[in-house]
User: What shape does this take?
Amino acid sequence: MLAIVRRHVVDPVLGLLRQGLSPRDLALCLALGAGIGMFPVLGVSTPALTVIALWQRLNLAAIQLVSWLVGPIQLVLIIPFMRLGEWVLGSTPQPMTIEAGMEILSQGVLHAIVTLWDAIVHASVGWVLIGPLAIFVLYRSLIPILERALKTLKPSTPK
Assistant: This one.
């Protein structure tokens, strides 16, 4: 398992540092990809991250890779984000499971949007309360890690 993580996550990140991507830019790519990649509405994160990456001139591949990697976490967090949104808005909790949501989605996207509108709004509110803070904390945490990693990649020049 560690070899898979190293080959598919760590090595590509180090490769981006080797190619000249700054630790701050890479940290921003990783934080945005992870945070927005967990937005609890399926199909929103890919176009949103593409627009952000192009607008901010960030590494599109890095952002999308991280978003793809957090996909399973996104699915797991849909219900907790929905519950948080229901709690904040004072709504009655809806009886919802991931399986039921996927069954509704299999009947068509438009049908799912209409049927799950309240759940979508509640989950989005829950993410808005957690997501931006999580992105900021992850970004600030990754900067020193990536700066250290860059120093290990570049041999120090003797004086």
About this structure: The CA atoms of residues 35 and 131 lie 6 Å apart.
